[in-house]
Amino acid sequence: MRREAMIEAVRAQMPEKRWSHTLGVMHTSVELANRFGADPVKAEQAAILHDVAKYWPVDRMEEALRGEGRGLADDLLDYDKELWHAPVGALVAARDYGVTDGDVLSAIRFHTSGREDMSLLDKVVCLADYMEPGRQFPAVDKIRELAEHSLERALLAGFDSTIAFLLEKGKRIYPLTVAARNDLIVRLNREADRQ
Ligand SMILES: Nc1ncnc2c1ncn2[C@@H]1O[C@H](COP(=O)(O)OP(=O)(O)O)[C@@H](O)[C@H]1O
């Protein structure tokens, strides 16, 4: 699907406020992609589609994950429903929007949870979702500051804030986010040792 048609179709899937968030993620994804050497066209496409399934009814998301999406995120069904829209979004992007690029589909699929060994594009879109201009939460200024120089340090601060928030609320933590955080720490330590 062409860019403009995709934008209009996704916009129709969500309330105005969420569309403003999506516009923010588009803008920030392109900015981060240019800053850190990712493909800005892919970054923007993943950003356009990242929340396409956000307003699906829960039973529809569950049906998609148990049906055509089986094997994609089976373990996720045990965790907070807030996380489901990301892999469902990747399914929708491929099926209804004709996205075939694996990098783009991966960035949509992992934009909320993260994962171990995240690709450059995964990191860009996940971080953009944390720090787009409309986001307001205690750690966001620190995340934006870190993102001036380090994609990994900024994303780590993002995961830290999500994990701290979940701990505070007494909620369960989907382990892939913990794995993503641990992996970033190992990589950052390795990099520091090399310097
Ligand atoms: N690892 C996790 N385990 C459980 N809940 C999580 C995890 N990561 C994120 N969440 C929750 O998922 C919700 C949606 O995340 P958010 O990134 O704000 O949404 P969106 O992807 O739509 O922008 C948040 O309430 C967040 O706390």
TrEMBL record:
NCBIfam families cross-referenced by the UniProt entry:
bis(5'-nucleosyl)-tetraphosphatase (symmetrical) YqeK (TIGR00488)
**Keyword RNA-binding assigned:** no
**Enzyme Commission code:** 3.6.1.41
Give GO MF terms, alphabetically.
bis(5'-nucleosyl)-tetraphosphatase (symmetrical) activity; metal ion binding; nucleotide binding
Q: What class of enzyme is it?
A: hydrolase
Q: Keywords for this entry?
A: Hydrolase, Iron, Metal-binding, Nucleotide-binding
Q: Which parts of the sequence belong to the HD domain?
A: 18-134
Which reactions are catalysed by this chain? P(1),P(4)-bis(5'-adenosyl) tetraphosphate + H2O = 2 ADP + 2 H(+)
Annotated transmembrane regions: none
Q: Which Gene3D superfamilies match?
A: Hypothetical protein af1432 (1.10.3210.10)
| PANTHER family associated with the record | BIS(5'-NUCLEOSYL)-TETRAPHOSPHATASE, SYMMETRICAL, SLR1885 PROTEIN
* PROSITE patterns with a match to the protein in the record: HD (PS51831)
A Pfam family in this protein? Answer: HD
Question: In its UniProt entry, what is this protein called?
Answer: bis(5'-nucleosyl)-tetraphosphatase (symmetrical)
Q: Which organism is it from?
A: Paenibacillus darwinianus
Q: From which lineage does this chain's organism come?
A: Bacteria, Bacillati, Bacillota, Bacilli, Bacillales
Please, which domain of life does this record's source organism belong to? Bacteria
